[in-house]
């Protein structure tokens, strides 16, 4: 519990500049690019949280999650941004297209396809952030491995998808602040569902 609370607080602090900006933006589709910019700090903050939670799992005597979080942020801030920024840009294009879909003149099934691509991109991003947080690969290699594991480990991808659905449902029914308030438990669940991915990466792709 101590680790979860500490990591939760540190994640919110690290992502606070962008989260504060989001609070000032209205729900208008025209604000989507600005919202993506505001979400940029969330990538490194999430990678650092995943690192800290994984470190705590492996060392039960470690009662200093803040130290692990700071180390995770130093190691993973730049690698995470190299993947997180393009992912946000891509998702922004998809979201902007869907919110202005009637103006495109495309058939309705294109909207379904774009939504599916967006969900798949989010699931790829979940694998990519876990790999970035725990391994020191080049960005291109992390991107390829995340795509590889997206289909190879269906249970891990399904686990990430279930967390995505749970978060979206909770946000719609309860409050938009729910993902931020439950970030640490959600990331711990993501780590648990990603264990096959982590194990195969350690066995086959590290020295």
Number of helices: 11
Class from secondary-structure proportions? mainly alpha
Rg over C-alpha atoms, rounded to the nearest angstrom: 17 Å
Provide the helix percentage.
Answer: over 70%
Number of strands: 0
**What is the CA–CA distance across the termini?**
34 Å
* Low-confidence runs: none
Overall pLDDT? 88
How would the global form be characterised?
Answer: globular
Give me the strand/helix succession.
HHHHHHHHHHH
Write down the oligomeric state: single chain
**In percent, how much strand structure appears in the residues?**
under 5%
User: Sheet bearing the most strands, described?
Assistant: none
Descriptive account of the structure:
The chain is mostly helical. It contains eleven helices and no strands. Helix 1 (2-24) runs antiparallel to helix 3 (42-58) and helix 3 packs across helix 6 (108-134). The longest helix is centred in the middle third of the chain and has 35 residues, at 65-99. The model has no long low-confidence stretch (mean pLDDT 88).
Task: Give a short summary of the structure.
With 207 residues, the protein is mostly helical. The protein has helices at residues 2-24, 32-38, 42-58, 65-99, 101-104, 108-134, 139-152, 154-173, 178-181, 183-193, 195-204.
List keywords for this structure.
11 helices, mainly alpha, 207 residues
Question: What does the secondary structure layout of this molecule look like, with pairings?
Answer:
Blueprint: H1 2-24, H2 32-38, H3 42-58, H4 65-99, H5 101-104, H6 108-134, H7 139-152, H8 154-173, H9 178-181, H10 183-193, H11 195-204
Helix pairs in contact: 1-2, 1-3, 2-4, 3-4, 3-6, 3-10, 4-6, 6-7, 6-8, 8-10
């Amino acid at each position: 519990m101590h680790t979860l609370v500490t990591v939760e607080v540190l994640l919110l602090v690290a992502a606070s500049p962008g989260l504060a900006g989001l609070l000032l933006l209205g729900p208008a589709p025209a604000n989507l690019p600005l919202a993506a910019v505001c979400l940029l700090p969330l990538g490194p903050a999430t990678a650092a949280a995943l690192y800290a939670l994984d470190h705590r799992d492996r060392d039960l005597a470690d009662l200093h999650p803040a130290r692990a979080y700071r180390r995770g942020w130093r190691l993973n801030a730049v690698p995470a941004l190299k993947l997180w920024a393009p992912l946000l840009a891509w998702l922004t294009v998809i979201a902007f297209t869907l919110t202005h879909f009637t103006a495109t003149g495309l058939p309705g099934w294109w909207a379904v396809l774009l939504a599916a691509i967006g969900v798949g991109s989010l699931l790829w991003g979940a694998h990519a952030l876990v790999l970035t947080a725990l391994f020191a690969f080049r960005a291109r290699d992390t991107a390829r491995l995340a795509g590889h594991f997206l289909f190879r480990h269906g249970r891990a991808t399904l686990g990430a998808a279930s967390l995505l659905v749970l978060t979206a449902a909770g946000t719609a029914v309860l409050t938009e602040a729910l993902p931020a308030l439950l970030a640490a438990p959600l990331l711990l669940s993501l780590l648990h569902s990603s264990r096959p991915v982590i194990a195969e990466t350690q066995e086959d792709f590290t020295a």
